[in-house]
Amino acid sequence: MDQAEIEKTAEGLTELERKILAHIYAYGPDTPWLMARRLLGAAGWAPVAPEGEVEEACRRLEEMGLLERYRGSLKGLVTSSIKPWLKVKRRNPDRRGSGIYYDLTKRGRWVAGYLYKQHFRRARG
Question: Domain holding 8: CATH number?
Fold first, then answer.
């Protein structure tokens, strides 16, 4: 994938879609529910983006071939310091099923890396 193609793909994305790609690039696979609350390292339980919009953006990115459903195993372990409650929820048999985790495809990693380095890395540090 050349630079011109990466830039053209990035230009066709909404601001929310750009943030989702940069978030997964920086923090790893995540669910739309968690991304709505923790997008690019935001703190708190109030959503920073509407959940429905995040889910729709993830579906659109999946259709574009930039995201795929994560097929790895969580193995009942805490996946990051941002999501320590996953271990507790896994032991609770009455809980709802796990959310759909999204990860970057190879093409998505190229676009997300470009977006993160050009727009979001400077804002974080």
Answer: 1.10.10.10
pLDDT band (50, 70, 90) for residue 41: confident
**Is there a domain that residue 81 lies in?**
no
The CB density around residue 75, as the number of other CB atoms within 10 Å, is 8
In a domain, 85, yes or no: no
15 within 8 A of 57, measured Cβ to Cβ: no
55 to each of 16, 42, 82, 96, 111, how far by Cα in Å?
11, 18, 20, 18, 19
More reliable by pLDDT, 122 or 56: 56
Q: What is the pLDDT, as a whole number, of residue 124? A: 53
